[in-house]
Design goal:
With 280 residues, the chain is mostly beta strands. 9% of the residues lie in helices and 43% in strands. A hairpin with a 7-residue loop joins strand 12 and strand 13.
Length: 280
């Protein structure tokens, strides 16, 4: 009797599973949204705009609705009070509305920075907020305005003071390498030439894995970026992040290493005793 009951339970479970599977198949059909069209900055909610004095220089921001427009739709945009950039002084909007054409799902708003008004080496931020028929999510776009300065690699040659988030300041010497690369000597006080890969299109800088020094206990010790850092052509400064590590583990993760170019060849004494370094 127990075996019969066991088979009945098993068959019942199989039948229920089959019904559930069929229901899932029916529910997997394309879902069609029938609610109102809501607008948002769903793909990107922040960006960087390098403002030049060239005619026609502008930044285009896209907004999206959650279904194709049944007719031409217009949505309002305001400059949020949290902005540090001032409309009419630091920038202008081509329009305070976004139009999405019938059958489409995206529209644009155009921001035109005023080159002469922006500070030479500081960022101003404009926060654009969707107000009409806006989704409850991603309805603010934060745009950083920076005055553009061209990348001149020879301007980065010289002596730099380095301020890490883990050590006292020290000095590095930077020379010009191949292409857009720079060569830095003196990171952590080590006599090692480390290549800095400069990307002028994105104002970013990267350190690929390279040998920094040799440790008596841990052997070869390497340095590489955790993620791309940045540089400014306005004052020739760099902001790097990197880790120093061996096969056995990591010595330090430096999350912020700010390099400021010295006006004179000022050398700050920095002696890191590599014998006392330990894996964290």
């Amino acid at each position: 009797m127990k075996n019969i009951n066991k088979h009945i339970i098993t068959l019942s479970l199989l039948f229920a599973t089959a019904l559930l599977f069929n229901a899932c198949e029916e529910d997997s059909s394309d879902f069609e949204y029938n609610g109102e069209a809501l607008v948002s900055f769903a793909v990107e909610t922040q960006g960087i705009y390098y403002v030049t004095d060239a005619e026609g220089n502008a930044d285009t921001i896209k907004a999206y609705i959650n279904k194709p427009a049944s007719k031409d739709l217009t949505f309002s945009v305001i400059v949020d009070e949290s902005s540090t950039a001032v409309e009419g002084t630091d920038f202008n909007l081509e329009s305070n509305t976004i139009t999405i054409k019938k059958g489409e799902v995206e529209g644009i708003i155009v921001v035109k920075g005023i080159y002469s008004a922006l500070p030479d080496c500081a960022t101003k931020v404009v926060n654009l907020k969707l107000t009409s028929d806006a989704a409850e999510y991603d309805n603010i776009y934060s745009l950083s305005l920076n005055k553009f300065f061209p990348f001149v690699i020879t301007d980065f040659e010289g002596s730099f003071t380095v301020n890490d988030d883990t050590d006292d300041p020290y000095n590095v010497s930077v020379t010009i390498g191949e292409g857009n690369n720079l060569t830095a000597n003196g990171i952590w006080g080590m006599d090692a030439d480390i290549t800095l890969e400069m990307d002028p299109d994105n104002f970013s800088v990267n350190i690929a894995e390279q040998l920094l020094f040799e440790h008596s206990t841990y052997g070869n010790v390497y340095i590489k970026s955790n993620s791309a850092g940045s540089f400014k052509s306005c004052d020739n400064s760099l902001d790097l992040n990197f880790k120093v590590y061996a096969d056995a583990g990591t010595f330090q993760n430096v999350t912020s290493s700010v390099w400021t170019k010295n006006s004179k060849s000022e050398v700050i004494t920095f002696n890191k005793d590599i014998k006392t370094l330990k894996i964290q």
